[in-house]
Amino acid sequence: MIPLYILGLLMRFGPQHGYRIKKLMEEQLEDFTQIKLPTVYYHLEKMEAAGLITAQRDKQGERTEKTVYLVSNGGIDKFKELLQQTLQIQYRPTFDIDGTLYFSDSLDRGALTDSLSRHVSSLKKTLDELELHRNATMVHIPEDCKISANIIFEHHILHYQAELTWAEQAWKLLKEDEAYGKS
Amino acid sequence: MIPLYILGLLMRFGPQHGYRIKKLMEEQLEDFTQIKLPTVYYHLEKMEAAGLITAQRDKQGERTEKTVYLVSNGGIDKFKELLQQTLQIQYRPTFDIDGTLYFSDSLDRGALTDSLSRHVSSLKKTLDELELHRNATMVHIPEDCKISANIIFEHHILHYQAELTWAEQAWKLLKEDEAYGKS
DNA sequence: ATAATAATAGTCAGTACTGACTAAAGTGAA
DNA sequence: TTCACTTTAGTCAGTACTGACTATTATTAT
Question: How far apart are CA B179 and CA B183, in angstroms?
Fold first, then answer.
């Protein structure tokens, strides 16, 4: 997905340094990618080698020069190809916490329910923040992207809510089982 | 997470070949990890080097010998440590399809809604299969793990349902916008 | 018995990712 | 104006992962 993001951002916001691309990702895509800066540079180099983007040394006065990247014609084609391609992707999540649960018989039952209730509070907090963040972010989003940006926020909110529902339900089941196991 | 899974499975089902560990993962953990066989071997080697497990050459008769791994004392400690550690993990999903959506102004609107309705059907199918799979898998799960196994299945089901709700809602919004845009 | 196919048990080289680091330019406060 | 702190702009070495491959043993169909 990262080359798609890079190409898309370069096309939407014009030529940028690697660092600015990363900043744009945070500003624009923060809630749906958590890529790190060195990874951006890694892909920029690969993409330049593949002829998708062109590097230009950006020297102003006496400053040490920096590298600005811009999309080439091949990059535009690749962008469309990637966009088509990613439409095919399947939803198939994995949840790290499931591993812990599967082996939870090795774990003190109290630690597990405690952890789940921390999870519940954390999710509630995140949901609140997400609402705030939606408002804050929307300001930076170009007008014609607002519909999709909203759909993306909805996406996250629905999944956080699902996670919350699940965590509360799981907590309850484990508590009941605990009570039953003791009797 | 993988070392946790490997240690847990070796403790629960006794010493195994790398290949069998992978099979157990499919049987027991299929719906919450999608690790590949070479990755299992990679971790087995690392874990042996770290003294968490011990390799034993398993030679029966004239056959070429194979390697069986068993958990060492250090491994038991590490398992408990990892279990504690993974209790802290935060839920923070990313969805590849969001990238496509964010750049969907470069995309034919019909292609997008088509893709979303394919997504909807695919999710419905997956939800049905998940129900079937739950029944099929439960047979292989040790009695004392059934509660947690069920909670794990619920986890997946709730998120698939959330994804379904979202996809249907997104499809509707885009269709409405399309109609509005035309008028 | 035997040829074909599937399951078992790996190896290895190449790709992807990132923590920890460097270093310059800007900023603000005393 | 200079010291401390933040932001910008990157590099590099090491870790994690896996596609594509090999090779042996089991099963099944003929």
Answer: 7
Q: Which positions of chain D lie under 7 Å from any protein Cβ?
A: 8-13, 16-20, 24-26
Domain map (residue ranges) of chain A = 2-86, 96-182
Structure tokens at B147: 């509660």
Q: Which residue shows structure tokens 């019909």?
A: B110
Range with top average pLDDT, A40-54, A123-137, B22-36:
A40-54
- Please indicate whether, in this complex, the C-beta atoms of B101 and A152 are within 8 angstroms of each other: yes
CB distance A148–B93 less than 8 Å?
A: no
What are the b/e assignments for A68-93, b being 16+ CB within 10 Å?
bbebbeebeebbeebbeebbeeebee
Block mean pLDDT (10 aa), chain B, length 183: 96 96 91 93 97 87 80 96 91 93 90 94 94 82 83 96 98 86 56
In single-letter form, the type of residue at position B90 comes to Q
* DSSP label of A90: P
Q: Which CATH code is given to the segment(s) B2-86? A: 1.10.10.10
Q: Which two tokens stand for residue B8?
A: 């847990």
Alpha-carbon gap, residue A160 to A9, rounded angstroms: 27
Residue A183 to residue B117: CA distance in whole angstroms: 50
Amino acid A75 reads G
Residue A56 CA and nucleotide D28 C1' are separated, in Å, by: 64
**Helix or strand run (H / E) with residue A181:** helix A146-182
